[in-house]
Amino acid sequence: MVSKALVRLVSAVHRRRMKLLLGIALLAYAASVWGNFVNMRSIQENGELKIESKIEEIVEPLREKIRDLEKSFTQKYPPVKFLSEKDRKRILITGGAGFVGSHLTDKLMMDGHEVTVVDNFFTGRKRNVEHWIGHENFELINHDVVEPLYIEVDQIYHLASPASPPNYMYNPIKTIKTNTIGTLNMLGLAKRVGARLLLASTSEVYGDPEVHPQSEEYWGHVNPIGPRACYDEGKRVAETMCYAYMKQEGVEVRVARIFNTFGPRMHMNDGRVVSNFILQALQGEPLTVYGSGSQTRAFQYVSDLVNGLVALMNSNVSSPVNLGNPEEHTILEFAQFIKNLVGSGSEIQFLSEAQDDPQKRKPDIKKAKLMLGWEPVVPLEEGLNKAIHYFRKELEYQANNQYIPKPKPARIKKGRTRHN
Ligand SMILES: NC(=O)c1ccc[n+]([C@@H]2O[C@H](COP(=O)([O-])OP(=O)(O)OC[C@H]3O[C@@H](n4cnc5c(N)ncnc54)[C@H](O)[C@@H]3O)[C@@H](O)[C@H]2O)c1
């Protein structure tokens, strides 16, 4: 796979170089023909100096064009650091074309590592990583983690899994397969090549928690047959698999229990509360609140999460670590806040409560602070403004976009729409 990519890269570079060389050769030829032609006539008329300056007049703009072309080849990518062979890692990110995965890709690429993104594009998009396509340190593989993968890497960030309720409930069996068979495949790969694996687990392993805030010691309160079980239990067993591989096979594992995260590149239609409220406010639609709106959530900005994931991966902490922002707000407060930031005249509309919707969610991040020296630093307002800017642009790009995250009351009873 790597050698194929190399061949592709080399041939792409060759093709570009060939085009450039051909352009230069044609130029030189045209210049010499022109030169000869003019030479013969003008030598007698105006003298050699005049001819040369005429040629120069024609050739200079063409040289300029070649310089621009060369610049466009070299300035195409965001700047990346140079890392020596010793420090540069080969890193696999499963689910790397998704929301979190693409931001993690950006960070690791800019830090100078070699990044391979594996994604089946169920909820991810090529657009999220398109700015790296063709870069010599980057590779994008269309692959489903439910199938085995053979690749040489040093670290694996295993993020592949649908993450929002409408997405993971769309095909619960596939969600279970991705989190179980997919995780087994990645752990098998980690074992074979001696790589360290970080699992993107979730605060959903705590279910509808009876303790508040939730620390890593809490075992959770999950309904094993509820509408969310495919995801919650899928992630719980994925954690179990990590520790079985660690104990039995000596695989180095890291487990991040990620709490609600938001930012640019979230899906427009994934039903998560931040994207719903922003889109509704931007489009002048009512902001839909399920239940009384007194249920609480705590949201972290995506760059904080990415820094936490990298810190955890490179730490010695093999037990689970919560990564989230402990600043807690009610859903109603979020609705008001977003409405004000957007400057929208939208109303707030109350709908019936969603099934198994956790009433409280707030991470205890003492462990991350103590053992990773990590804590969120992006203020809520700053993060929300970035997300609002992103969604505003998305709506602008889609000139005919009429998408409004409509509440579907008929499905609420079956637990298919809820706050996450
Ligand atoms: N965003 C959050 O608030 C949050 C919270 C807790 C946990 N997480 C976890 O973080 C990870 C990333 O979440 P996200 O918000 O970026 O979601 P996302 O849906 O944007 O990204 C998930 C990615 O995984 C890919 N994927 C899904 N199934 C796959 C399969 N079988 N094979 C290969 N690729 C597959 C999707 O196409 C997508 O690109 C997930 O594992 C999720 O459970 C996210």
Q: Give the beta-strand count.
A: 13
Give the SSE string.
HHEHEEEHHEHEEHEEEHEEHEHHH
Largest sheet: 7 strands, parallel
Number of helices: 12
Give a list of the ligands: nicotinamide-adenine-dinucleotide
Give the mean pLDDT. 87
Overall, the morphology is: globular
Quickly give the structural class.
alpha/beta
Q: Assign a percent range to the helix content.
A: 40-55%
Instruction: Point out poorly predicted stretches.
Output: 403-420
Intertermini distance: 38 Å
Cα gyration radius (Å): 27 Å
Q: Estimate the strand proportion.
A: 5-15%
| Strand arrangement in the largest pleated sheet | 3-2-1-4-5-6-11
Key terms for this structure?
disordered C terminus; binds nicotinamide-adenine-dinucleotide; about 425 residues; 12 helices; alpha/beta; glycoprotein; two-stranded parallel sheet; NAD(P)-bd_dom_sf; golgi apparatus; 13 strands; lyase
Please describe what this structure looks like.
This protein is α/β, with parallel strands linked by helices and 420 residues long. Helix content is 46%, strand content 13%. The chain contains 12 helices and 13 strands. A 7-stranded parallel beta sheet has the order 3-2-1-4-5-6-11, with helices on both faces. Strands 7-10 form a two-stranded parallel sheet. The protein has a two-stranded parallel ribbon with strand order 8-13. Helix 6 links the parallel strand 5 and strand 6. Helix 5 packs parallel to helix 6. The protein is globular. It starts with a helix and ends in an 8-residue tail after the last helix.
